[in-house]
What does this fold into?
Amino acid sequence: MLIEVYSDVVCPWCYIGKRRLESALSAAGINDADVRWRAFQLNPELPPEGVDRRQYLEAKFGGPEGVTRIHDRVVEAGKTAGIDFRFEDIARSPNTFDAHRLLRLAAQQGKQGAMKENLMQAYFLKGRDIGGRQVLTEIARESGLDGDVAAWLASDAEADGVREDLANARRLQISGVPFFIFGGRYAIAGAQPAEIFAQALDAARRLPAPGTEQPIG
It folds into this structure.
């Protein structure tokens, strides 16, 4: 089954949703799902070097109290998905365009799942600056990618592919992530509980294959 997921690597709910989807797949005994991670940027306006995360979030959410409330909620939800968020260790909010480019390279080598997990672990659990190309190169090596990743990142390879994902998200009117599309025909939004993913998986498997629907009447 093809499962397309629009998400951003700096979206904590996307990480929670990823883990819950994986739990649902495991519980259903589905080990051959083709999960493809599609690009979405929560903060496309950020400069390539990123910005101070605390200042950015306080401006976005109305001061320290607003940030604390949001973090507390996410930390509690993260525990249910086995994620120990360490927001206090994150110094910068990065622009994620290069990270999404790298995920497309990883997909070409059959390692996109590992790259996605490692990027999110690096950011949310270790506070690494995943907008920096040196850090991205290190994570690529840790994920088993082949080739000269540093030189690849210095090019504009897969930039058009990322832009295409972003354009498709707008066409689909995706305004928030994570957003999951099962079999190209059944979609749910948000980091839903694992049982909701299980229902979505079951519903998607029951849908007829495209082009095989029986005519009405």
Summary: DSSP finds nine helices and six strands in the chain. The two ends are 30 Å apart (CA to CA). Confidence is low (pLDDT under 50) at residues 212-217.
